[in-house]
Design a protein that fits this description.
Length: about 130
């Protein structure tokens, strides 16, 4: 586990409570677990980050890369009507398969928890959102 300051520990407790209340995570007894650290957001608040590097190394990478932006724009040539959709916390809109939940465990001083929705930072997660 990473060393966290008292401010980070207090913020972690608050964020875990929020995630539990929203039904995005649950307590876990899985043998897996990734450490937690924080990064500062532009507004000065803290963003909880799960260090998933070990799991990502074992994940088979998506064989179908993200399309190139210029190719997508070429397909839109001549179009006159456009729409835009912005999902708030988009990754959290995707439920995980039951057999994948145990792989999302993160360990904190306050216990181990697992995501019930797609957490940010997993290999191939972006391909599920597009």
């Amino acid at each position: 586990p990473y060393r966290l300051s008292p401010i980070e520990l207090a913020d972690m407790k608050k964020q875990i409570k929020y995630l539990l209340t929203k039904g995005l995570i649950r307590p876990s007894t899985s043998p897996y677990g990734a450490p937690v650290l924080f990064t500062p957001k532009p507004d000065g608040s803290l963003c909880i980050c799960i260090d998933n590097r070990a799991l990502n190394k074992q994940t088979i990478k998506n064989k179908y890369p993200f399309p190139r932006i210029d190719d997508l724009l070429d397909q839109l040539r001549g179009a006159t009507i456009f729409s835009k959709l912005d999902l708030q916390s988009g990754y959290w809109q995707i439920r995980l398969a039951d057999d994948s939940i145990h792989k999302t465990v993160f360990q904190t001083r306050y216990g181990s928890y697992e995501y019930l929705v797609m957490p940010f930072g997993f290999t191939n997660a972006h391909s599920k959102l597009t």
